[in-house]
Amino acid sequence: MTLTIILISLIAERFLLDYRYLRDNGWFNSYNQWFERHQLPQRMRQGVIGIMLLILPPLLALWAVQHLFENALFGLLWFVTSVAILLYCLGPNDLDASVNRYVEAVDSDEDEEIRASATTLIMDEPPTSEPARSQAAAEGVLLQANQNLFCVLFWFILLGPVGAMAYRIATWLPSMEQAKNDPDFLLNSKQLVVILEWIPARIAAFCYAIAGSFEDALYGWRSYHESRFSEFDDSNSGTLICTGSGAMRLSTLINEAHEGVQSFSFLAKSAMALVWRSLVVYLVIVALITLSGLL
Description:
Helix content is 78%, strand content 0%. The chain is an all-alpha fold. The protein has one domain (2-16, 24-291). The model has no long low-confidence stretch (mean pLDDT 87).
């Protein structure tokens, strides 16, 4: 059943890209404002306890709905609810469309559009020159694929709709207004995301290696632990970028671009192709686990 829900959700997402506004998290911002108005004791509002008290009520409400629908109409309501929640938690942006916009902007040589589309992929200010910009865009694709797909699927498989929603809510916390005003909240919310992404990041890196050049991926993984550890904010991003870059043979693609075989923007396209192949590997693994009776 879990695999069926995942497949339906992934397919349905392709046909519902024009309805991404339905993934708006305004309800959680309103809930957070309501939560803030109820002045809890200071010790219950700070650190991990404060974050847990913030996110637990909506998760418990979702669990109650899931439990209520579990046997209703032979489980049909639970099935539909699970698909809807997973669809809501995927993304929220269309990574494939973002890559296409970046490639089109580079091909058209539109500076403002290049900068805007690259920022969307990198989630930071992009480098101004090539191949650094396209390399950063490709690395951004590898990172965002984990956040948009692999993490959501992992927690859905492990804990159902509640797990997927818990991860998605956790990713909202660092960008909330409270995080801007409270450094302790920002630090703890970022650490929570890193913890939730630790296992999925390694699974995604493994899928990158299987779907690409395994030997180069293994070399990238070793280089991260031996010499590149200090280049990254956390081990998740380091593992994904180094392993994924190796799997897609990023250095070879850059050399080919220098020689005029292809444009630098192709790096982002190549990263996206690796993500799609890795998703197939991921689903095959889930199918094998399902057939073994573990799911």
